[in-house]
């Protein structure tokens, strides 16, 4: 056996013979192989591509053949030569990325495994390195060797055992195991048993501590290999972490490795973390006296030091401590001489951002600081390897987050996300500790990326947070704890923002802020958080790096889109354009003035009724709106010139394309969430959309069309009958007409016909469907015809996206008052929709079904307003096609079915006696009614069943249908009665009760038995009106009782003498139970039912009195034969109600 040091010398001495013997032996068949080069990364080595070193003349198979020949020549008892051959294998495969075919791989693997079994231990490291190179990306080809390597007595398990004294050997074994865990797309992965063995091995490595006899670099490499292995298992093996102990153990070691070697910090992490809603405390080493003494030496007001350097103090872990930072985040922008980006300016000036602030790094002892190290390259290399471990742990954490269910992950929130420290308590270490104090920009960026992944999709978890009111309780509620964590995250990220110098890391900080803003429940938190973010991000809009600028716009977009409209954001949008800007944002006011000049240069400037509409124009133009418009439409400025040359297309004229796209998206979000802020620029924003759609770049055109859609939708929302906006504050219809005239005379028609770009056509269709109906009627006739013609033509597009958008747009247009009365347009639209309803695309069919529902709504409106003339003009053949197509669509998937049954109800309501008597219609009517009845009682979604109940109610309104005597009527009443008693969804019950109360004549309810079955079902439903397993349904219970009581009174007003015995018996058994509900119905005045019908107290009383009068007359005719006088029961109810009302009024 040869010691490690002697082995290296022996290996060097043997270098010549190995090369000569190997090359000489194969001289006749293969070209000579150069001697082994130094390992990649070793001093003096240069990584060169094989194409530039003469290797291009060797095929990979030739190299494999050379390696096989070398192994055949060197027997296993020649250990020095075995070592050299393994070095050669490792070098060629690892450095030159040689792919080994399966036959040669089998031979070489067998050779290495045999060598591990037979050769002395001093050779094992080189053999394992060769093995690691061979199995890299070849895991699926190594299946038959897995028992030897990973079985119960597997070689890799032996060498990676924690008891293994040789750490180099252990590291090589773990690296081989990690390479085996790499996945190959399309190939089978490791069996579950092997995955479990590998995972436990990696976990034990990560849980181990460094001993005194192990050097730092070797230990770091060992940890890196284990982290890569875990990451491969999580990524390639799609490993799902389910068990709490498994998750807790992994998260504990990842947290430990995340801080490995971090200067100024030493923590002890338990072997496992456990899910808990409250903060988990970390045990840390005592504070060093010399670190404490440095605390007071920091200069005040230097933002470059605050946030990173102060966090080096291990004794004061609160990187946000007020005494250390000497600043409130809300006041940063108010410091007249403060520059929030001194590090960035240092970098621009060519200065070392850390050496320019030496005092801050005194918080880190000289032996730990990378920048105050006097020992040279060794310490620097150690720190580099430690940073790699931290980066590897964070990368592995990122994969872990994707492998854990979010609801499980958030149980560990407090272990990784900062929380405000209690009085006298230190700040717990978290991901933000790394983001604020790690000396490596790449590591800081990794931590922020992990935090972003943590925050992504956290809206439901964070929605419980609340601190709008000060709580004074003996305990801290969970909602307050989460709110405190959200506030701390804002503080940390804003500190990281002002302290960061690396553009890449700065981008990650802003993206992380955007993720936080998108998920935080600001309406439940004290205002002020968004104001701080808003004011801090403003200067970064003019940053030298385009990615920072793009992410800054993304953050602003998140602010204007979260829970819009928020009062705090409204105030921010109304701020003067110069508010919060310092010298670093000097380019921004110039953009505002340019934007104003551009606005004034427009042809209609000064004529627009929106220049100063009463009560809606802000005193100054909206800062964000002007910024976005200037970025999109104005030439770029020299002072904002971008250092990134990756966007050369229009670099000399406009801002880089990603920046313009982001500005367009922010503008669309601003219009969507805060339309009153944008409406004073309504025509100007239309001009922006026009210019964008005229450009050559399809992505700019697409977002221009989306902006146009948002502008149209904003006007539509404003002009709705129930809009809270006062009429005088709305965009005038005349301005809307001007707007759409500009669009239709501009690029919109051409965009709609731009067939190579289907997504663009789709967005243009959506935009065209957002036109205000009142404005459409005032457009010129040729423009109206243009719109309709374009949509009818696009309905025949071969692209499903375009066809779906066109079908939906036609469904919007069919409701326009000026179009729905045109029989020819109705017929053309109906045929187009029916064509789309048979499309193979489910999305097209769903949109067509929605439009079909709108079309049939139009039939009912026209029937009620135009009368018989419209019904006679509409083709019977078209009506039959509508009925049959809707019946067929009612058997489709739920998204199609919900609107198909709505259309069926409308068509059946529209039919006239001549249609019902027509033999061609008879079978279609029967099938459609059966489809409706089946849908009511089906297991479809609640939306489908609600629409089916609504549709049956519409059917009952048609007097031409033989409701009382037809067999299908019994089935319909039975289905509705079943639903009103037992459906889990209360809204469906309400709609079924409403349908049961629609027939206006007693004959429609059929026989006495059927009538009384309906009555009994409603009585049972009233008693069950509070029975539900879903707590969310309780809010509908009052509406349900109201509708059932209304239906019961309706039945009583129609009852015959033959119905009274059964009704009386029912009241005798259940009268006392339902009486409180009826009294409650009478008292609850001013409610709207599901149909939007408003009923007041007097109307309800009149309804009850009407039932009493009707029943009293019948009972008088019976001359006392009735066993229970129903009228007396109702009179008692009315008396109780009257007495209660009088007491209340008194």
UniProtKB/TrEMBL annotation:
Region of interest: Disordered: 280-317, 330-375
Pinpoint the DUF4042 domain residues: 389-569
InterPro entries, alphabetized:
ARM-like, ARM-type_fold, DUF4042, HEAT6
Q: Where is the composition biased (Basic and acidic residues)?
A: 281-311
Q: Which domain of life is it from?
A: Eukaryota
Please identify the protein, giving its name as recorded: HEAT repeat-containing protein 6
Q: What gene makes this protein?
A: HEATR6
């Amino acid at each position: 056996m040869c010691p490690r040091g002697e082995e290296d010398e022996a290996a060097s001495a043997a270098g010549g013979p190995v090369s000569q013997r190997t090359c000489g032996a194969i001289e006749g068949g293969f070209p000579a192989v150069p001697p082994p080069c130094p390992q990649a990364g070793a001093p003096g080595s240069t990584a060169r591509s094989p194409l530039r070193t003469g290797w291009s003349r060797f095929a990979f198979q030739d190299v494999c053949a050379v390696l096989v020949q070398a192994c055949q020549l060197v027997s296993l008892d020649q250990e020095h030569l075995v070592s050299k051959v393994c070095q050669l294998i490792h070098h060629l495969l690892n450095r030159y990325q040689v792919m080994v075919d399966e036959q040669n791989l089998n031979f070489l693997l067998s050779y290495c495994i045999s060598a591990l079994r037979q050769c002395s231990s001093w050779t094992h490291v080189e053999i394992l390195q060769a093995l690691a190179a061979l199995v890299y990306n070849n895991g699926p080809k190594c299946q038959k060797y897995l028992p030897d390597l990973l079985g119960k007595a597997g070689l890799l398990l032996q060498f990676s055992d924690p008891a293994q004294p040789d750490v180099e050997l252990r590291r090589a074994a773990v690296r081989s195991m990690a390479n085996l865990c790499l996945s190959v797309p399309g190939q089978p992965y490791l069996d579950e048993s092997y995955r479990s063995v590998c995972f436990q091995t990696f976990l034990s490595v990560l849980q181990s501590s460094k001993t005194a006899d192990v050097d730092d670099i070797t230990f770091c490499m060992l940890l890196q290999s284990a982290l890569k292995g875990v990451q491969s298992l999580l990524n390639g093996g799609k490993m799902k972490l389910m068990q709490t102990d498994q998750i807790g153990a992994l998260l504990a070691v990842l947290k430990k490795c995340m801080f490995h070697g971090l200067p100024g910090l030493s923590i002890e992490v338990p072997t496992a973390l456990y899910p808990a809603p409250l903060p988990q405390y970390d045990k840390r080493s005592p504070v060093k006296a010399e670190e404490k003494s440095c605390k007071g030496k920091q200069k005040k007001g230097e933002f470059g030091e605050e946030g990173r350097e102060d966090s080096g103090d291990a004794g004061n872990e609160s990187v946000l401590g007020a005494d250390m930072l000497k600043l409130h985040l809300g006041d940063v922008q108010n410091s007249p001489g403060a520059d929030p980006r001194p590090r960035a300016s240092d970098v621009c000036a060519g200065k070392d951002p850390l050496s320019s602030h030496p005092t801050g790094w005194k918080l880190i002892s000289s032996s730990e600081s990378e920048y105050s190290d006097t020992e040279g390259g060794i310490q620097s290399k150690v720190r580099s390897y430690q940073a790699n471990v931290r980066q590897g742990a964070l990368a592995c954490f990122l994969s872990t987050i994707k492998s854990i269910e979010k609801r499980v992950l958030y149980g560990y929130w407090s272990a990784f996300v900062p929380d405000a420290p209690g009085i006298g308590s230190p700040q717990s270490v978290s991901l933000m500790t790394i983001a604020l104090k790690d000396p490596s920009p790449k590591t800081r960026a990794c931590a922020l990326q992990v935090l972003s992944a943590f925050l992504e999709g956290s809206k439901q978890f964070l929605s419980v947070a609340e601190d709008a009111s000060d709580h004074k309780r003996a305990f801290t509620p969970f909602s307050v704890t989460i709110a405190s964590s959200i506030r701390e995250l804002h503080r940390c990220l804003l500190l990281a923002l002002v302290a960061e110098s690396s553009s890449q890391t700065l981008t990650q900080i802003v993206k992380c802020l955007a993720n936080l803003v998108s998920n935080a429940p600001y309406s439940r938190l004290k205002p002020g958080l968004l104001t701080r973010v808003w004011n801090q991000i403003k200067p970064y809009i003019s940053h030298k790096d385009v990615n920072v600028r793009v992410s800054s716009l993304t953050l602003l977009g998140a602010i204007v889109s979260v829970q819009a409209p928020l009062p705090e954001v409204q105030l921010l949008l109304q701020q003067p354009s110069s508010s919060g800007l310092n010298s670093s944002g000097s380019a921004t006011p110039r953009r505002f003035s340019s934007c104003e000049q551009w606005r004034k240069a427009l042809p209609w400037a000064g004529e627009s009724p929106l220049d100063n509409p009463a009560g809606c124009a802000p005193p100054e133009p909206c800062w964000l709106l002007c910024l976005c418009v200037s970025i999109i439409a104005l030439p770029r400025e020299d002072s904002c010139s971008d250092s990134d040359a990756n966007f050369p297309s229009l670099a000399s004229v406009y801002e880089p394309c990603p920046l313009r796209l982001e500005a367009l998206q922010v503008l669309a979000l601003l219009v969507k969430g805060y339309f009153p802020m944008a409406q004073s620029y309504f025509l100007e924003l239309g001009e922006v959309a026009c210019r964008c759609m005229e450009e050559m770049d399809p992505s700019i055109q697409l977002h221009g069309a989306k902006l146009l859609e948002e502008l149209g939708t904003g006007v539509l929302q404003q002009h709705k009958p129930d809009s809270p906006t006062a009429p005088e504050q709305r965009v005038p219809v005349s301005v809307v007409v001007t707007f759409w005239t500009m669009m239709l005379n501009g690029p919109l028609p051409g965009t709609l016909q731009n067939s190579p770009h289907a997504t663009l056509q789709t967005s243009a269709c959506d935009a065209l469907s957002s036109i205000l109906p009142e404005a459409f009627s005032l457009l010129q006739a040729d423009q109206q015809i243009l719109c309709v013609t374009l949509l009818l033509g696009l309905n025949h597009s071969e692209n499903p996206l375009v066809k779906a958008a066109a079908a939906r747009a036609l469904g919007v247009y069919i409701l326009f008052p000026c179009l729905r009365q045109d029989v020819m347009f109705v017929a053309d639209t109906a045929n187009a929709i029916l064509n789309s309803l048979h499309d193979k695309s489910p999305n097209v069919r769903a949109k067509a079904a929605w439009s079909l529902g709108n079309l049939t709504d139009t039939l009912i409106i026209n029937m009620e307003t135009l009368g018989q003339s419209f019904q006679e003009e509409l083709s019977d053949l078209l009506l039959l096609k509508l009925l049959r197509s809707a019946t067929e669509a009612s058997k489709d998937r739920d998204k199609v079915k919900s609107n198909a049954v709505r259309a069926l109800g409308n068509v059946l309501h529209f039919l006239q006696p001549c249609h019902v008597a027509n033999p061609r219609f008879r079978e279609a009517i029967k099938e459609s009614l059966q489809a409706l009845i089946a849908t009511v009682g089906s297991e479809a979604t609640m939306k489908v069943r609600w629409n089916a109940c609504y549709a049956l109610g519409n059917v009952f309104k048609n007097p031409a249908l033989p409701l009382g005597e037809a067999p299908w009527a019994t089935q319909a009443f039975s289905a509705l009665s079943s639903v009103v008693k037992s459906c889990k969804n209360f809204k469906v019950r309400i709609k079924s009760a409403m349908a049961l109360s629609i027939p206006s004549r007693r004959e429609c309810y059929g026989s006495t038995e059927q009538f009384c079955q309906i009555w009994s079902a409603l009585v049972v439903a009233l008693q069950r009106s509070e029975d539900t397993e879903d707590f969310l349904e309780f809010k509908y219970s009052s509406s349900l009782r109201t509708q059932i009581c209304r239906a019961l009174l309706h039945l009583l007003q129609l009852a015959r003498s033959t119905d009274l015995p059964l009704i009386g018996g029912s009241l005798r058994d259940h009268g006392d139970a339902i009486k409180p509900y009826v009294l409650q119905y009478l008292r609850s005045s001013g409610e709207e039912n599901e149909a939007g019908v408003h009923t007041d107290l007097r109307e309800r009383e009149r309804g009850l009195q009407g039932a009493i009068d009707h029943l009293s007359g019948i009972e008088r005719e019976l001359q006392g034969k009735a066993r229970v006088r129903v009228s007396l029961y109702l009179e008692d109810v009315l008396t109780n109600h009257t007495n209660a009302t009088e007491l209340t009024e008194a």
